[in-house]
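Re: your question about GDT1 family protein

S., sorry for the slow reply, the queue was backed up all week. Below is exactly what I fed in.
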Amino acid sequence: MDAFVTSTLTVTLAEMGDKTQLLSLLLAARFRNKAAIVMGIFVATILNHAASAWLGSWLATWLHGQWASWLLAGSFIALGLWLLIPDKDEDVAQRFDQWGAFLVTTGLFFIAEIGDKTQVATVLLAAQFQQIVWVTVGSTLGMMLANVPVIYLGQALLQRLPMAWLQRIASVLFIAVGVWVLFAS
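Result:
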């Protein structure tokens, strides 16, 4: 259960102010079918994060001993520092309008998640916990918790949330997990 809770919390916080959250806002402004956007985010995230969790779990089977702990701890700390660097807003959805909300959302979210902070976090969490299913479910839930309100509440929500504050909390959380892994080994 720790894998699920930790994955949900860390991915939710890491997603605040992320480019995919901005993509959610853009898609909600562009398409009327909000449910299709939500389903597209879900499908893209579950596919991307399941592959990421598998990769993290596989990497953990190859990395053993002190090196593995140091690498994992350093990765969590580096990700925490990376969270302090804001993402840029990119407007690419308009090129694919004819495909509809679900296909555009699924494709753009899948691509946007490649190499993203939350994908890296999912790899690291799976390496830490060795629980592919719970990390995938938790990280997917975290993505949904961060993005669905943006779809339905849009700009009004984003104006009230202190994004810099949420990014700092996520940063501290990842750094704390890295320090915990370092000292637990």
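The chain has a mean pLDDT of 80. Helices lie at 2-15, 19-30, 34-62, 65-82, 101-113, 117-129, 132-160, 163-184.

Happy to talk it through on Thursday.
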